């Protein structure tokens, strides 16, 4: 009886008379999402209000864990590092993606598919593989310093992963290299869906390439910008693996003076 009434409700009603049909479609996915995401998040929050070793019985202590966290300088140091990496993982890749999109999105080039795939490859590579490759590149006797020596910039040669400041910048640069291909592919796909008549009308009105990009392309990429920002922002908060492989947990020391 219930299934028959439900079938009659779904098939016999007009679209305006079945407002709950959409919820029936999303219910299975929501149940899975709740089981594996929402409930664990809620459980984690509840456990954060307790003193628990994982084996003992949880003892409620209120907000003491959060008070210790706020007063822990390591927490603020880690948070500052994440904010620093947002520049390299989010802001710079989006800016580079927009720049490349403005240059090639509306230009027919041979081998464009190969070009896009080549730029997107770092995004699908393992962070461990990327870290090992760039650790070799940034080595004191690696290709990057050899290039600086070749062009006469001996004063700029440094162990890039050997001290805190240059290691952060080097790891951030690798993050930009990994993420900007993703942003570019998203922006090019969005730019190709913009009506070409808008550009024709803008050219008739005398708009130059920069004005066309600012007033047509950029507003047409709002959804792609949101997606790119979300994905790259998440990557900036999950940067541990790449930094750990690059710096070996902070144990990469500069070369001895005799090696210089």
Provide a concise account of the structure shown.
It contains twelve helices and two strands; from the N terminus they run H-H-E-E-H-H-H-H-H-H-H-H-H-H. It is mostly helical and 260 residues long.
Write the layout of secondary structure elements.
Blueprint: H1 2-12, H2 21-48, E1 50-51, E2 59-60, H3 64-70, H4 73-104, H5 112-124, H6 127-137, H7 143-150, H8 164-191, H9 196-204, H10 209-220, H11 222-237, H12 240-247
Antiparallel strand pairs: 1-2
Helix pairs in contact: 4-8, 4-11, 5-8, 6-12, 8-11, 8-12
Count of alpha and pi helical runs? 12
If strands are numbered along the chain, what order do they take across the biggest sheet? 1-2
Query: What is CATH's topology name of the largest domain?
Result: MetI-like fold
Q: Output the CATH class name of the largest domain.
A: Mainly Alpha
Structural class: mainly alpha
* Main sheet characteristics: 2 strands, antiparallel
Features:
single chain; 260 residues; mainly alpha; MetI-like fold; 2 domains; two-stranded antiparallel ribbon; 12 helices; 2 strands; flat
Structure characterization notes:
The chain has 260 residues and is mainly alpha-helical. It folds into 2 domains: 2-66, no CATH class; 72-259, MetI-like (MetI-like fold). Helices cover 70% and strands 2% of the residues. It contains 12 helices and 2 strands. It has helices at residues 2-12, 21-48, 64-70, 73-104, 112-124, 127-137, 143-150, 164-191, 196-204, 209-220, 222-237, 240-247; strands spanning 50-51, 59-60. A hairpin with a 7-residue loop joins strand 1 and strand 2. Helix 4 runs parallel beside helix 8 (164-191), helix 6 packs parallel to helix 12 (240-247) and helix 8 (164-191) runs antiparallel to helix 11 (222-237). It is flat and about 70 Å long. The N and C termini lie far apart (85 Å). 20% of the residues are buried.
